[in-house]
Amino acid sequence: ESYLTRLKLTEPHLKSFLHVSEHVLKQAESLDHRIDRNENIGLLAGVLVGVKDNICTMDMPSTAGSRVLENYRPPFDATAVKRFKELGGIVVGKTNMDEFGMGSTTEASAFQVTANPWDLSRVPGGSSGGSAAAVSARQCVVSLGSDTGGSVRQPASFCGVVGLKPTYGRVSRYGLMAYASSLDVIGCFGSSVADAGILLSAISGHDRLDATSSKREVPDFTSQFISTELLGSKPLKGLRVGLIRETLDNGVDNGIKSAVLGAVSHLEELGCTLSEVSLPSFPLGLPAYYILASSESSSNLSRYDGVRYGNQATADELNALYGDSRAKGFGPEVKMRILMGTYGLSAGYYDAYYKRAQQVRTLIQKNFKTALDENDILISPAAPSAAYKIGEKKNDPLAMYAGDIMTVNVNLAGLPALVLPCGFVEGGAAGLPVGLQMIGAAFDEEKLLKVGHIFE
Ligand code: GLN
């Protein structure tokens, strides 16, 4: 009840949700009855979870922020949703997002723009801006987002919450509406590392409905969250931390640099040994990501033809029906991505764009492998700036894309990364949060969660 009251009060200012469930209290009551009957209730019993609107929820709208899916109600739950529900988690509602995950601010949502709880005139980041704002404003306890190129980590940074992008394949993508299938992962938001880690525990593991989900055993992520008082004065002694040189180059705000360097000295105080590492291919990540993500999306989004799902235009003839449904259903950013992707994949340009971007991707993977052989974790800012004003970059897509420089490389390499608050810069009434990104080796979420928990 207290969460719902808070949600009602704050939602008119924030607009984090596209849909709020009417069944929350009824579901909570039925858990109470189970407690009364001494039945086992799960790890997440009664925990309110916000779910990004591109993650399918049974009998609840799931639009991916697009008119093309307005009124679509999936007849099934995404595996991640099914899993947290089995442990007693309750879907509080569906959170706002940039259409199909394409954007960094939520301004590309077809329905509404979400505000940043730290300063209502600023963006919450994106594309999972609704999920980040909802946790930041305590409208729910934890939330799910999706991260194709930073969509969990950048909004976590802008909203001052913890964002966790798991290794590609750790969490099933079944029921996650595809943007770029080789990059997409479902990730977790929480107001602490422990909260995000507990949610990850609930949703991880192999799923026969997603052939790319990993069969690796899932460690008990929750076992790390012991009292930090028990750990002594240098709890991270011997941990090798590599600061990525290319991420502190020009183009990063000074306030962000000093917050990150402050975090680095804190890690040293905790016993870490620090070195600077170079990932020479790092700056190539941005163009490679935008070519690959657009190419994959141009193929994935062909399923929205007005026949199989969602909104259908009225037309006398089949091709006009496809064309009109897509013309009316997709917003401008999505259309631009489809055009860019189709161009990059077309016969005359494939070698110059798509193939080249794939080669860069291999190079980036190799660079990370070398750096992570020599270091336990790598460190960078989560974004080159703090949250900016609504409208500031709306008409300058290249400036907006450039803001993804810190995060896209991690998706290209499929690695896990944790973003957590590490300070403030000036702005708003109380300052604006800055996020620190920790990148780990594939399937080593456990180490990230341990370091993150001790750090915070
Ligand atoms: N901002 C990036 C894009 O628009 C990343 C989005 C995401 O991770 N879904 O593609």
TrEMBL record:
This protein may be expected to contain an N-terminal transit peptide but none has been predicted. Keywords: ATP-binding, Chloroplast, Ligase, Mitochondrion, Nucleotide-binding, Plastid, Protein biosynthesis. The active site is at 52 (charge relay system), 127 (charge relay system), 151 (acyl-ester intermediate). Subunit of the heterotrimeric GatCAB amidotransferase (AdT) complex, composed of A, B and C subunits. Its main location: mitochondrion. This is Glutamyl-tRNA(Gln) amidotransferase subunit A, chloroplastic/mitochondrial. It is found in: Mitochondrion; Plastid, Chloroplast stroma. It catalyses: L-glutamyl-tRNA(Gln) + L-glutamine + ATP + H2O = L-glutaminyl-tRNA(Gln) + L-glutamate + ADP + phosphate + H(+). Residues 1-449 form the Amidase domain. Allows the formation of correctly charged Gln-tRNA(Gln) through the transamidation of misacylated Glu-tRNA(Gln) in chloroplasts and mitochondria. The reaction takes place in the presence of glutamine and ATP through an activated gamma-phospho-Glu-tRNA(Gln). It comes from the Eukaryota. Coiled coil: none annotated. Transmembrane segments: none annotated. Belongs to the amidase family. GatA subfamily. The chain holds residues 70 to 525 of 544 of the full protein. Its EC number is 6.3.5.7.
